[in-house]
TrEMBL record:
Annotated Pfam families: Hydrolase_4
Domain (Serine aminopeptidase S33) ranges: 79-195
Domain of life: Bacteria
Entries under SUPFAM superfamilies matching the protein: alpha/beta-Hydrolases
InterPro entries xref list: AB_hydrolase_fold (IPR029058), Hydrolase_4 (IPR022742), UCP037442_abhydr (IPR017208)
Keywords in alphabetical order: Hydrolase
Keyword check for Transmembrane: no
Record-level Gene Ontology MF annotations: hydrolase activity
Protein name: Putative alpha/beta hydrolase
Hydrolase recorded as keyword: yes
Length: 352
């Protein structure tokens, strides 16, 4: 036990040193997760949002857990509903500007924090039993049910970023969604990371993160400037994810997991960017392979095509993409039209 604690302490020190190497992080990582004040900013501190504040709501999950949500209401009649699901360790308010943009187009938009994150975080993360899977099975499920109860007949679109674009497959209520738009969606299997960054990312997320979660009882990502704090169960599920998703769960649960994903037959537009070190073509295709009965279109965009030098995993939801990606995404949200049809690719995962 003594040697194990010493090893964990050494690993934590190494992780802390690595966290100071800001130059090795992308600009988007630093803007989103870097200075502590960025993590502590709130929606009402975003210039231009003050006069259009969302309504705060509470979502009750099947297990009784309460989630914090924000409802963005359009002026006048709504032309449909949109649920936005976050990336791992990213607060719902990061998507506030995009949600407000969709509200301006006449949509009712729901953003929400997963259990253990932001407004849905308990007083302490130590000792809580929260899995990554719960964010889809329970949290996304609750968001969809809430929106469907509010508007039973209108169109409902799910927009998911990173893990938020993959997790819907866990939710029984996902069959209530009319269309899915995923952005950089994958489940972080380490061999799919971009080759130049793979070793660094493996050390960061698959060595440092689980070691710190074991030592502290949760992953203190906020202190490191990496992302929000994560429940230990989420951190470990990410760190130890296998090539086949279902193999990460007990054998008696695997068939149900596969059936949940297979039950979705709605159209999916999976958008990625060529310089995304997480959402590589292999990673995107690996995740999409589980949606075997869905109508899938896969698109990879390049930074130059978006008028940018660098986009990466996080940038598409920043306001500088309002006239590019944001407006183009409306084609899919409004009528299921792929605005990037010239960039379409087959969704094939040979490694799966």
């Amino acid at each position: 036990m003594r040697f194990r604690r010493l090893w964990l302490l050494k690993t934590v020190i190494s992780c802390r040193v690595a966290s100071l190497e800001v130059a090795r992080c992308s600009a988007a990582d630093w803007v989103i997760f870097g200075p502590k004040q960025m993590c502590e900013s709130s929606t009402h501190q975003l210039p231009g949002i003050e006069d259009r504040m969302p309504e705060s709501i509470s979502l009750t999950c099947r297990d009784g857990y309460s989630l914090s949500g924000q409802l963005w209401l359009p002026i006048g009649d709504s032309c449909g509903s949109v649920v936005i699901s976050s990336a791992t360790g990213v607060l719902a308010r990061y998507y506030a500007r995009y949600a407000d943009f969709l509200r301006e187009q006449g949509y009712t938009v729901l953003t929400y924090d997963y259990r253990g994150i932001g407004g849905s975080r308990p007083a302490s993360l130590r000792g809580v039993h929260i899995r990554w899977r719960d964010w889809g099975d329970l949290d996304f499920d609750a968001a969809v049910r809430w929106m469907r109860q509010r508007d039973p007949d209108g169109p409902l679109v799910a927009v998911g970023h990173s893990i938020g674009g993959f997790l819907p497959g866990f939710a029984a209520a996902a069959t209530e969604v009319d269309r899915f738009l995923s952005v950089g969606a994958q489940y972080a299997y380490w061999r799919d990371y971009a080759a130049p960054q793979r070793l660094r990312m493996f050390a960061k997320w698959h060595l440092c993160m689980p070691a710190m979660a074991a030592l502290f009882g949760y992953f203190p990502g906020r202190s490191l400037g990496w992302l929000e704090d994560l429940p230990a169960g989420v951190a470990k599920e990410w760190a130890y994810r296998r090539a086949r998703l279902e193999q990460s769960y007990p054998e008696h649960e695997r068939a149900d997991v596969l059936q949940r994903f297979a039950a979705i037959n709605a159209p999916i537009l999976a958008v990625s960017v060529s310089d995304d070190e997480y959402g590589t073509p292999a990673a995107i295709a690996r995740g999409l392979a589980y949606y075997r009965n869905a109508q899938v279109q896969q698109v990879q965009l390049s930074p130059p095509a978006l008028g940018m030098e660098r986009v990466g995993h996080f940038d598409l939801f920043r306001e500088r993409h309002r006239d590019g990606f944001w407006k183009a995404s409306l084609g899919w949200i409004e009528e299921g039209r792929n605005s990037w049809s010239d960039e379409a690719q087959p969704a094939v995962c040979a490694a799966c």
